[in-house]
Write a structure and sequence with these properties.
The protein has strands at residues 3-7, 10-13, 18-25, 34-39, 46-51, 57-59, 67-72, 77-82, 91-97, 110-111, 115-120. With 121 residues, the chain is an all-beta fold. The protein starts with a strand and ends with a strand.
Length: 121
């Protein structure tokens, strides 16, 4: 069974950094587009960043310049490096394959279980 397993969430003070990881088990992801989404309390779950199979990336305006997505095909892992974190980045972060839409479509494709990121001021 193919699964996505996320790690790296936690609590950090504003201005700090975290790196999220999403590892695929039971399959290959060399040819998969991957994405990171987040569910901010009270707001719509939305796409934060994505990376295509050939390495092209997209980053939402809200995190541009602070977050960066990358992947390691050999490790079947996609990363989200988050720098200069703000309290408004507090959310549950999900990885997905593929990133089907700009909003979360949990019933389509593969989704991780989510990892909580909490940024305190």
């Amino acid at each position: 069974e193919v699964q996505l397993v996320e790690s790296g969430g936690g609590s950090v003070q504003a201005g700090g950094s975290l790196r999220l990881s999403c590892t695929g088990t039971g399959g290959t992801f060399d040819d998969s587009d991957m994405g990171w989404y987040r569910q901010v309390p009270g707001k719509q779950c939305s796409l934060v960043s994505s990376i295509t199979s050939d390495g092209s990336t997209y980053t939402s305006d809200s995190v541009k310049g602070r977050f960066a997505i990358s992947k390691d095909n050999a490790k079947k892992t996609v990363y989200l490096q988050m720098n200069s974190l703000k309290p408004e980045d507090t959310a549950v972060y999900y990885c997905a394959a593929p990133p089907y839409d700009t909003v979360c479509r949990f019933g389509i494709g593969l989704w991780g279980q989510g990892t909580q990121v909490t940024v305190s001021s």
